[in-house]
Amino acid sequence: MLTNIGSDRVRSVRALSRRAVRQREGLFLAEGPQAVGEVVTHRPDAVQDLYFEARGGQTPARTRQAGSRQAVTPAAVTRQAALLDAARERGLSIREVSHEVLVAMSDALVPQGVVAVCRNIDVDLDLVLDVRPRFVVILANVRDPGNAGTVIRGADAAGAGAVLLSDSSVDIYNPKVVRSTVGSLFHLPIVTGVPVATLLERVRAAGLALLAADGNGDTLLGDIDLTGPHAWVMGNEAWGLEADVRAACDAVVRVPIYGRAESLNLAMAATLCLYRSPGVQNHPSIR
Amino acid sequence: MLTNIGSDRVRSVRALSRRAVRQREGLFLAEGPQAVGEVVTHRPDAVQDLYFEARGGQTPARTRQAGSRQAVTPAAVTRQAALLDAARERGLSIREVSHEVLVAMSDALVPQGVVAVCRNIDVDLDLVLDVRPRFVVILANVRDPGNAGTVIRGADAAGAGAVLLSDSSVDIYNPKVVRSTVGSLFHLPIVTGVPVATLLERVRAAGLALLAADGNGDTLLGDIDLTGPHAWVMGNEAWGLEADVRAACDAVVRVPIYGRAESLNLAMAATLCLYRSPGVQNHPSIR
Asked: Could you tell me if B71 lies within 8 Å of chain A, comparing CB atoms?
């Protein structure tokens, strides 16, 4: 069991909270049973190391504060055991650590017993376009981690083929993005680091229509034909899409506002647009 | 101009950040030009006092920290002037205050030049049901301020007739709820403080079908008939709807998941459900 919070290993994991370190190492951190469970299940190839804190004989936390222990329920114990079994089956590197080490490694206020150091999972744009996706999402200059993560979650739920982030968007390996995708980061291909103009050009060249989502668009969401391959282009949460991006798109689409609300937020608008695209239910057995 | 941050008036405004004080006084705080602008425009009757900081000759903030001044753009100056004109036209009580007084009054990290002390605006359930709304939203035990506020914003955008919050839900006058409604709090009738069972009983008695939104529902969103009057019943963000609430509803509806996402969050699911309900565009001239 690792117990030395000053060790090089613990420091190097902790350092992944810094973007510069993540970029240099090509690694990031998945935290908690939800995110770690999803990467183990769907992208075991991406797991470099998995660290867990034994959850058997703990007492519930008295106070919820930074570094405190979370109340450990029987369900959480069972869930962790299943996660570790799944990780062992896949031959992953697993290390038990002390509570203090897990706290030292983690970005979370209340660590939930397990973290995984993961290799970057973003893929080349070519790979995404080669499989001729029916619809994808382009995030142009989306900066807020929670918004980006929620849109990735919505894209996954709606059955999008991929999410493409412009180079000026938030880092998808930011712990807040990882958390807010609730595992969806590991469910569909993600492209990062490509300039907006290049994304639009390449996606159009691959035969997808470019649909800008914009509160001032001249085409109503209900009026747009979504039967062909297409890309939803979503802009910054505060200032929307730049004029040149809108001009480069085939249509500028707005979600109707029926009441007096000035607008919808990015995640709500994106979810409504994405759910108009014809999804194919991949998991009818689950639901 | 009010400059004494220790005055009774400033203290009594500041005290509205506490729920007990809000309940006792029947007052709450709207902060920033967006929220204050909406209450002045749509519910001037609810404004007890409006406090503003003159925005003419300020310099931009050097650092964004608690109590710091926000950068004041020419657009912000114009917007504030228009807001104050509108408030004067409606005969509202307006007082200029120093920057320090505004900071002392405000709950916001970076006050945006204006706050309004407002009278509670929630209405009786009878009033809402008497006008025979086509569809409404019931929030059963929704506890997170941001979620509740975002659903109120979505309900407004979708053209819902009202939002009804159970007595165990978050206080709609919590500053975080007010902020996250982005003004929608002042756009449609809100009912609070009624037990869930009573809400369901009364709404059904008024002729609205009760539609529970639940990830495990047996009716797909696309299959439900929404032509008649109905109420969407949304549950807690973490644990969903209680079994007895689901059982009391006419249908339990799920949003389909096409990819591998485990679920959608409350605001996304609510937005998708609400936008299936037939909205009437109230403001075609605006958009």
From this structure: no
Are B25 and B117 in contact by the 8 Å Cβ rule? The answer is no
The token duo for A116 is 């995984």
Q: Please return the burial class of B184, using the count of CB atoms within 10 Å of its CB with bins 0-12, 13-18 and 19+.
A: buried
Whose tokens are 């639940």? That residue is: B214
| Total length of chain B | 287
Residue B117: which H helix or E strand, with range?
Answer: strand B114-119
Query: Is the CB of residue A158 less than 8 Å away from at least one CB of chain B?
Result: yes
The angle subtended at Cα A270 by Cα A269 and Cα A274, nearest 5°, is: 120
**Of the partner residues B187, B258, B260, the one whose CB lies closest to the CB of residue A260:** B187
Output the average pLDDT for chain B: 91
Give the ipTM: 0.89
Per-residue pLDDT of chain A (287 residues; tens, 9 = 90+): 999 999 999 999 999 999 999 999 999 999 999 999 999 999 999 999 999 998 764 444 443 454 555 567 888 889 999 999 999 999 999 999 999 999 999 877 778 899 999 999 999 999 999 999 999 999 999 999 999 999 999 999 999 999 999 999 999 999 999 999 999 999 999 999 999 999 999 999 999 999 999 999 999 999 999 999 999 999 998 899 999 999 999 999 999 999 999 899 999 999 999 999 987 654 333 32
End-to-end CA distance of chain B: 40
Measured between CB atoms, does B159 come within 8 Å of chain A? yes
Instruction: Please give, rounded to a whole number of angstroms, the shortest distance from the CA of A260 to a CA of chain B.
Output: 6
How far is A178 from A187, CA to CA, in rounded Å? 12
One-letter amino acid of A275 = Y
Q: Is A64 exposed, middle or buried (0-12, 13-18, 19+ CB in 10 A)?
A: exposed
Q: What pLDDT is recorded for position B280?
A: 64
> Chain-centre distance of CA B225, in angstroms?
28
The SS3 assignment for A45 reads: helix
**In whole angstroms, how far apart are CA A240 and each of A142, A213, A233, A264, B204?**
9, 9, 10, 12, 41
Evaluate whether A198 touches A165 at the Cβ level (below 8 Å): no
In this structure, what DSSP letter does residue B2 have?
B
Q: Is B157 on the interface with A (CB under 8 A)?
A: yes
What is the identity of the amino acid at B258?
Answer: Y
CA distance A272 to A263: 13
Chain B contact set for A282 (CB, 8 A): 258-260
